[in-house]
Write a structure and sequence with these properties.
With 823 residues, the protein is α/β, with parallel strands linked by helices. The strands form five sheets. An eight-stranded mixed beta sheet has the order 16-23-22-17-21-18-20-19, sandwiched between helices. A six-stranded antiparallel beta sheet has the order 3-2-12-5-6-9, with no helix packed on it. Strands 13-14-1-15 form a four-stranded antiparallel beta sheet, with helices on one face. The chain is 45% helix and 15% strand. α1 (22-31) crosses α11 (519-544). Belongs to the CpsD/CapB family. It catalyses: L-tyrosyl-[protein] + ATP = O-phospho-L-tyrosyl-[protein] + ADP + H(+).
């Protein structure tokens, strides 16, 4: 059924094609399936090469340890309850984490483990990083000799524990690095050292290098064709280490730490972790003993002084008893005296703590942290303060190192002094907090003593004197007992001291799988990227392609009736209907003949049918010839007019002489019967275009041309006009006025979408009547007649079926069906 024309309200949407045809895009993707198979295969190949030759594996090893909380010091702060504020916190764990990630600790490890010496080996494509102990020889440098860093040195085994030293062909530098001072120095230019074969323990000397090779007694069983050694500065090595170490706390027990080290070699990460914790244990034990011994010495000195005061106070008290006979005070208020004694004891303890704080403050002020005493002597456990003091100690040590290299006013010295002042300010701030707390408590005790001792005024002077002497003795005795208790605690710690770090699980090489790169993810990314490439190219092509490729979209946009779909013509000329009458294309033209009745009234008058298109090459002449042929074969007297005077074509297919044609008739050179030619079909005549005239438009629009068409109506049942393309000239629009029906030929994947806008608008504005479309050169798989749902190939119905070959996907489907016994 022919669709109705659109109303004016919906006509505004007509003629606008979608920017992106999803349906056609999917068909193109399916049609180009082999590209995706190729991309997947290529992606698998690239992934394999990447995994085998280019992916540098990254490994990780773990070490877990616990931090005991039975002791504390500045340099080994304890996880504890803060003395004043009563707060819980993982102070020691945080401090230990800072120690593990501190520059001083990692610099020590870099120096201790020679981590600034990097080993690797290179195959045909890939370079692999090695652990020091995988190498058959150790690379030992002379630290007193300036060395060139970032300069790959290749060692090639020559047999007999001899190695050829091969240096780069270029890249010699006069800016050399000193591992003693960790600074650069400049030397005079020099010529590239020649390659040289050296033995074990033999010094290799060049202007920019001095090293020797030491045998590894337990090397890796793998034989390496080469060993590449690259030196780095200590600073750059430390900076790189920071990015490979992570410290986490156990979620259930926050005193347990899990340290992770990442690296290119698993053995290297294991050695680093175990050495790092081992050195930290030793350092913390030394620091712990130093502080406790300082505390013990401090307590002994104070005990000696207090003992003298205690003896002196006892002498005074005994003298009063003997000389003055005062053994006791009559009617004494025991309750008040007991309260006074308790307050005096607390006061003596506070004064002892304040004196300990004074000692700590004086040590900080003198910058002699090696004489610091334990904060326990002041009755305090503060991990934050301890960490601050430990940081201050490290900064002092760092400043001593920098002072050997830089001048006092240099930028590094100014920066280290700024950090020291900041740490000192933080530590003094903590001390002030404790001072204020203790002094506040002391003032409170003094007020209480003043209140209680006011009741002693009633005692006689002689008895009050005795009570004062007794109070003094009790305070000194309380101080002595407090110091003695602290001394006993300190002596026990010194005798039983051990590192508060206990390794739970040391780092081990258990054959752990690499943590990076993610080979599977990389493979999917590579394959996905390659598959996306043809998808993207097809999408870009789809966006840039403005040709008609979708029949459904064509009909939805134009709302012009479709008379039929013509498949691709594989014949060597345009006479398909005449020479291949049983072909599917011939059947399609018969379908168009049947559908023509919908475009004009069913009466006995002759029918004039005009064929046009947007531009040349769309098959307008081909369709004209074959429509005229099917009409002639059906018994209808038909004439085909070649009225595309600018580009004559019809005569060639019918083997007609084009010396005289319509152009000659319209100019009056010949008569009508002289231009009408008989064909092999009795009912089909042809009038060719004739020679190309200088004024084709004027001739076609002339009165004689119109009368010519009217005259032919009287002699033929159908007059088929092959007119000029409307996209190039306007001749066809004028001829349409005299036609009973017009056929607009659209060629698959050839006609531009924008070219249909004009004919669509004219049709829906009623400027063109009785218009139908013919879709030509369609290659959608099923080629037939009518609306494109013809019989198709492979059913033994058309001539083409003799050479028809099933598509591969159909073969696979049929094979599967045969296996399962389905027809």
């Amino acid at each position: 059924m022919i669709p109705e024309k659109e109303t004016a309200q919906s006509a505004s949407k007509i003629g606008s094609f979608a920017i992106f045809d999803v349906e056609h895009y999917i068909r193109r993707v399916v049609r180009n399936w082999y590209w995706f198979v190729l991309m997947i295969a290529l992606g698998l190949g690239i992934s394999w090469v990447y995994s085998k030759y280019y992916a540098q594996r990254v490994y990780a090893s773990n070490l877990s340890l616990s931090v005991s909380n039975n002791t504390a010091s500045y340099f080994t702060p304890n996880q504890s309850i803060n003395f004043i504020w009563g707060q819980n916190g993982n102070q020691d764990g945080i401090y230990l984490k800072k120690m593990l990630l501190s520059r001083s600790h990692n610099e020590y490890l870099v120096q201790q483990l020679d981590l600034y010496i990097n080993y690797s080996t290179k195959g045909l494509i890939k370079q692999t990083y090695l652990d020091k102990y995988d190498s058959p020889v150790f690379f030992e440098i002379d630290k007193s000799y300036p060395q060139q860093v970032d300069y790959p040195i290749t060692l090639i085994p020559k047999g007999g524990n001899r190695y050829e030293v091969v240096l780069p062909s270029e890249g010699e530098s006069t800016n050399l690095y000193s591992y003693e001072t960790e600074s650069f120095r400049t030397i005079s230019p020099f010529k590239r050292p020649e390659n040289k074969v050296i033995g074990l323990n033999e010094w290799y000397v060049a202007p920019n290098l001095r090293f020797r090779l030491v045998k590894n007694e337990q090397p890796s069983p793998i034989q390496f064709e080469n060993i590449i050694v690259n030196l780095s500065t200590v600073n750059s090595t430390v900076n790189n280490l920071f990015n490979t170490i992570t410290v986490d706390f156990d979620k259930e027990i926050n005193s347990i730490m899990i340290i992770t080290k990442k690296g290119y070699n698993l053995n290297g990460t294991v050695n680093f972790l175990n050495t790092s914790v081992d050195e930290l244990q030793k350092k913390r034990l030394i620091d712990r003993n130093t502080v406790d011994k300082n505390t013990e010495k401090y307590l002994v000195e104070n005990l000696n002084n207090i003992r003298k005061k205690l003896d002196s106070s006892a002498t005074v008290l005994n003298h009063m008893k003997v000389s003055e006979g005062l053994y006791d005070v009559e009617k004494r208020d025991e309750k008040s005296l007991d309260e006074i004694k308790a307050l005096d004891t607390k006061k003596a303890e506070l004064i002892t703590r304040i004196n300990s704080l004074n000692s700590i403050k004086n040590s900080l002020a003198s910058q002699n942290l090696d004489r610091l005493i334990n904060m326990n002597a002041a009755g305090i456990q503060d991990g934050i303060f301890d960490a601050t003091v430990a940081e201050l100690k490290n900064l002092y040590a760092k400043r001593r190192e920098l002072a050997l290299i830089y001048t006092p006013n240099s930028e590094p010295m100014r920066e280290i002094n700024r950090l020291i002042n900041e740490a000192r300010t933080n530590s003094n701030g903590s001390l002030r907090t404790y001072y204020n707390t203790y002094l506040g408590e002391l003032a409170k005790i003094d007020r209480q003593l003043a209140r209680v001792t006011s009741g002693l005024v009633s005692y006689p002077a002689k008895e009050r004197k005795y009570l004062d002497a007794e109070r003094g003795y009790n305070m000194i005795e309380a101080t002595y007992n407090t110091l003695l208790t602290k001394q006993n605690e300190t002596q026990i710690r010194v005798a039983t001291n051990k590192s508060d770090i206990t390794v739970i699980d040391p780092a081990k090489n258990l054959g752990q799988e690499p943590i990076a790169p993610n080979i599977a993810k990389a493979k999917y990314i590579i394959i996905g990227g390659l598959v996306l490439l043809p998808l993207l190219l097809l999408a870009i092509g789809q966006l840039l392609d403005s040709r008609i490729r979708n029949i459904k979209e064509l009909l939805q946009v134009t709302k012009i009736p479709l008379l039929g779909v013509i498949g691709r013509n594989s014949h060597d000329n345009n006479l398909t209907v005449l020479e291949q009458p049983r072909s599917s294309i011939s059947e399609a033209f018969r379908g168009i003949r049947a559908n023509l009745r919908f475009l004009h009234k069913e009466d006995d008058t002759s029918k004039v049918i005009l064929l046009t298109s947007s531009i040349g090459g769309e098959g307008k002449t081909y369709v004209s010839i074959n429509i005229a042929s099917v009409l002639g074969l059906s018994g209808k007297k038909t004439i085909l007019l070649g009225m595309d005077l600018r580009k004559p074509k019809i005569f060639g297919d019918f083997k007609i002489n084009n010396k005289f044609g319509i152009s000659n008739y319209l100019t009056g050179e010949v008569e009508m019967d002289q231009i009408i030619n008989q064909t092999s079909i009795p009912n089909l005549h042809v009038a060719t275009s004739g020679p190309i005239p200088p004024n084709p438009s004027e001739l076609l629009m002339s009165e004689k041309s119109i009368n010519f068409i009217k005259e032919l109506r009287n002699h033929y049942d159908f007059v088929i006009i092959d007119s000029p393309p409307v996209g190039l000239v306007a001749d066809a629009y004028e001829l349409m006025k005299y036609a009973d029906a017009s056929i607009y030929v659209v060629r698959h994947e050839y006609t531009e979408k924008h070219m249909l806008k004009m004919i669509t608008e004219k049709y829906h504005n009623n400027e063109v009547q009785n218009l139908g479309l013919v879709y030509n050169d369609y290659q959608g798989g099923k080629q037939g007649y009518g609306y494109g749902y013809g019989y198709g190939y492979g059913y033994g119905y058309f001539e083409e079926d003799a050479t028809y070959e099933e598509p591969t996907i159909i073969k696979i489907r049929n094979k599967i069906r045969s296996i399962f016994g389905r027809n």
